[in-house]
Specification:
Two copies of one chain form a homodimer. By secondary structure, chain A is an alpha+beta fold. The first copy, chain A, is about 50% helix and about 25% strand. Chain A contains nine helices and eight strands. Chain A binds a DNA duplex through helix 9.
Chain lengths: ~190, ~190
Amino acid sequence: MSHYLLEQNIKKNIHLSNEDLTTVSNYFKPLDLKRKEFLLTQGSICKFEGFVVDGCFRVFTLDKKGNENTLYFAAKDWWLMDIDSFMNQTASNLNIQALEDSKVLLISRKDKVSLYESLPIVEKLFRIMSQKALVSWQRRLIRNHSFTAKERYFHFIETYPDISSKLTDKQIAGYLGISHEFLSKIKKNSK
Amino acid sequence: MSHYLLEQNIKKNIHLSNEDLTTVSNYFKPLDLKRKEFLLTQGSICKFEGFVVDGCFRVFTLDKKGNENTLYFAAKDWWLMDIDSFMNQTASNLNIQALEDSKVLLISRKDKVSLYESLPIVEKLFRIMSQKALVSWQRRLIRNHSFTAKERYFHFIETYPDISSKLTDKQIAGYLGISHEFLSKIKKNSK
DNA sequence: TAAAAAAGTTGAACAAGTTCAATTGAATAA
DNA sequence: TTATTCAATTGAACTTGTTCAACTTTTTTA
């Protein structure tokens, strides 16, 4: 059952009784996406928070120059949303696209609000999750400033071998913030 | 009284009764720092979370090449800590230095844990604060990838005129992730 | 207030990364 | 299965940003 993975993920962050765990888990509804389908597109408002049960997603924005700037990838056991649009209920700048046939569990914004109210320990859960995410974003910024593109590339493929093996070089380049031509040159002169 | 600003800041995030607000606020202890003094240095463990009541701080890391990489600045009404070291109780990679004579309110890690336990709504407070911070970090990454150094510079000084006017160009360059010589050239050819 | 230290400027040479265009290779859809 | 589309590679010319060194200006400290 797809909720099992979600429950295990939650347990990594916080201790919950089985009853509470089931309550939380039941708020999440499964959704299947085909390869290349979008869970969210730029301009719309993000009304869900998601957890990836299977497959892989790319969260990216298209800037003025037409570059696809990838904020992050989310594979199995990762969370997924546009937190900016979700919190502020403003038009999203992000696209969330399935890179392969995928399955997610979604909780709607409304349901999340009721969940916070009915089960206050969920506040703690998302407080901890958000703080962990914050740590990753800060680390990534430091890497972006202090590593060269080549160092960032190898850090990425070594840290996330499972995810990076599913990605094209173009997608990886979009995550690293470099052109795919330059990534190709990095790979060439590293052999 | 210096706790007033903290209480106002908390109220921006969440509604609390005056009683609860006072309870939270009382956990925070004032500390004065002279210009150039450090609140945290690389290698030590961050045991506090801080709120700036007056003055200004720079949160930076010294990388292998000897570059001072600035994660963020925190002026009056901003929060301050190494969340990575604080959460994981591992050696910090960050230095937190006062840029001018400053006053902070600090809550110790121990006190924060008891506060979470005695007043569960504090979970919600920090959940919201963390999520807002997350939004800022994501936006900053997108800017770093899609803006040139020149665009990032003007975005910074226009968005944070109060903070940037207190900073040297060297410090701003460290925040933007560029050399201070290049920042000088950007300013020259923008006149 | 003088001396010292730090910040800012400038130029020249260099390195990192982009852009464009052409070509090849791989995956996908009809 | 073939045509088509998309990904990857390469080179050349270019732009962005770095490094180093010398110098000026401002700020700090004794």
